Structures are given as structure tokens and as C-alpha cells.
Amino acid sequence: MEKNKSVEEFISKKSEWKESLELLRSIMLSTEMKETIKWGAPVYTIGGKNVIGLGAFKSYVGVWFYQGVFLKDERKKLINAQEGKTKGLRQWRFNCMDEIDKKLVLQYVDEAIKNQKAGKEIKIEKSKDIEIPNELQAVLDTNPEVKVSFGKLTPFKQKEYKEYIATAKREATRISRVEKIIPMIQGGVGLNDKYR
């Protein structure tokens, strides 16, 4: 994940999409939304709530509507990039600058702002806690130092480790994963901290 500190920095790193991003940004800035950077990319908010995000990849530049599921989308522009996983988020992808219809994009953005002000949002369901896998529990039972270190981790980091072990299908893989994470647990590091 890129660690951009500003929207200008984000755009400068996406030179092939510079004009498209600047156009999309101008549309967002023409509204009452506040501009910020989250997860290394431009995000536009109302009352501290994420409404719109901008992204750029090799083959397209896009607008993310965080609660896009509530948009009418009469022109059928929006897609769910992760069918079955993503509940509220919808994307509108552009393969070239000519595809960006400023007036139409602004209509979608205005509707998204109205929906946010009306409180239309899908609440993220808290996932259920995962049992500690037997392979990890065995280490915690026999190694007091690892047990104390694991107990000091945030519940989120503990869950990441439990999922990492539990998702391995073979016992040998679960055991090798436990061996790999022990130093990380003792160091107070989360499984995916290097990506944050």
C-alpha cells in the first residue's frame, strides 16, 4: 500500500492517469465534501463519514462509492468488484479520460452525498471471534513467554493470527505457520503490520 501524504503526491505517482484524476478531483472539490488521504488514496467525506474514494490502476481509474449500493444507478455504471464480499461499496471504472462525463459523475456524487446525509449506510457486521487453533494453543500452553506476548496483542492482531493458522488446510502447514509467527508474536508485531 502506498504511503501518500497528500492527494497531489498520489496523483504525481499515477502519471498515466494524471488528467483523469485531476478531473475527478475537481468534481469532488466542487461539492461540500472534505478531501483527505486514507489508505494512501484520496477519500472524500461528509461529517467524518467516507462517501467517495479515488483510485488508479494499470488499466483504469475509478471512483469508489462507499455506500454505492444505495445509488439508483439508472445508467448502469457501477460494479461490485468483489461479489459476495463487498456489501455497500460500488465502483465506477474509466478506461480513458474521454469516458469521464463530468455532469453524470456529479449527479452520482450528489446522490451519494444526499444518501450519506440521510443516514443510508450498511453497518459492518462484527465477525465472530475465532477459536484458537489447536496448534497455536499447544504453543501457548507450553511456552509462558509466548502466551504473555500473545495476551498483550490487540484483539484484532490476535484474530489475524488465529485466522492465519485456522485457514491452513493441512496440519503440517498449520504447524509451519505457528513456527513462523512465534517471533512476530514475541515482538508484539501484527501479522500484516508491514502492509499498514
Automatic annotation (TrEMBL):
InterPro entries: YdeI_bac (IPR016786), YdhG-like (IPR014922). Transmembrane segments: none annotated. Residues 17-113 form the YdhG-like domain. Pfam families: DUF1801 (PF08818), OmdA (PF13376). Gene3D superfamilies: 3.90.1150.200. This is YdeI family protein.
